Amino acid sequence: MRRRFTDEGLRQMGNFLRACREAKGLSVHKLSEHTKEYEARFYEGLGEPLPKVLGVSIAAISRIENGNLNKPAPDILWILLDVLKPEHPTENRILTLEDLLLIGTEAWNPNIGD
């Protein structure tokens, strides 16, 4: 089933990510630094050369958190999820990229099982 991001879904997704960041006690600047460190370790583990641009920029994090990105790139969302490791609100597991995309398309209800 194909779904599109909605304005309200993007705002909800941004609010969720902001709440996760604030719960970890991270500023946008610190989160950006953590994403750079995470991505550097990832490439180092693969034995690959580092790309010129690492991590998620402060501006990109702010745009995502404010719901101002029409099509957030899944790789950026994945990095944010790997760094923040948000808990699913009703299940004892880490939130997945699929869960986050469902929030962005307003198709997500944490009270309904899969």
Low-confidence stretches: none
Order of helices and strands: HHHHH
Question: Overall pLDDT, averaged?
Answer: 88
* Portion of residues within helices: 55-70%
Q: Can you offer a commentary on this structure?
A:
The protein has five helices and no strands. Helix 1 crosses helix 5 and helix 2 packs across helix 4. The longest helix has 19 residues, at 28-46. The model has no long low-confidence stretch (mean pLDDT 88). It has one domain: Orthogonal Bundle (434 Repressor (Amino-terminal Domain)). With 114 residues, the protein is mainly alpha-helical.
Short description:
This protein has 114 residues and is an all-alpha fold. The protein has helices spanning 7-23, 28-46, 58-65, 74-84, 97-104.
SSE inventory with pairings:
Layout: H1 7-23, H2 28-46, H3 58-65, H4 74-84, H5 97-104
